């Protein structure tokens, strides 16, 4: 699996060798904007991997380091999910808003027109779909990581929305993400 390496300064040493979880996010930015943000020390944000719309993977934090992706978070009674997880960002605008027959992204107060694929509709609104190439790369990456870190099981792959404190603070990866497809492909 080919990855491009671009170093983010936004990481710490892990206090243990305990990688046991994957957290899935969407970027709400383009790839270049996400990389720029993760390279900016003042953003205090990063992830281990970013998967672009074409399936290409950029790694910004080594697995052995703690990326700053989950923020205030908790899983199974343990806080500080960044301590024991790998963060994967998928380039995706997330929720879209329809105004006057057109869809818009959150950027610039919902004023950036969306010109991507047909949005996915859910009970909670409209979403940019994830690409086939992203799903394929995500499956490959998750298979590699779960083999390297056997504590990563089906039950320990979550969305940012499942872990954030307080609950409801984050919504990624959102309603357009096909959990069954991904988990089924990785774990059978």
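Sequence proposed for the structure above (188 residues):
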């Amino acid at each position: 699996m080919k990855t491009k390496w671009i170093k983010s300064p936004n990481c710490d040493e892990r206090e243990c060798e305990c990688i046991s979880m994957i957290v899935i996010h969407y970027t709400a930015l383009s790839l270049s904007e996400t990389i720029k943000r993760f390279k900016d020390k003042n953003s205090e944000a990063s992830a281990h991997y970013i998967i672009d719309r074409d399936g290409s993977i950029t790694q910004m934090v080594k697995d052995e380091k703690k990326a700053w992706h989950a923020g205030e978070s908790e899983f199974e009674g343990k806080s500080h999910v960044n301590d024991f997880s790998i963060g994967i960002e998928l380039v995706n605008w997330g929720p879209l808003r329809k105004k006057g027959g057109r869809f818009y992204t959150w950027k610039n107060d919902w004023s950036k027109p969306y010109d991507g694929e047909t949005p996915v509709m859910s009970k909670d609104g409209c979403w940019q779909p994830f690409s086939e190439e992203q799903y394929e790369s995500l499956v490959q990456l998750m298979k590699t990581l779960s083999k390297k870190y056997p504590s990563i099981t089906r039950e320990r792959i979550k969305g940012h929305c499942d872990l954030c404190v307080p609950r409801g603070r984050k919504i990624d990866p959102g309603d357009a993400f096909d959990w069954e497809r991904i988990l089924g492909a990785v774990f059978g």
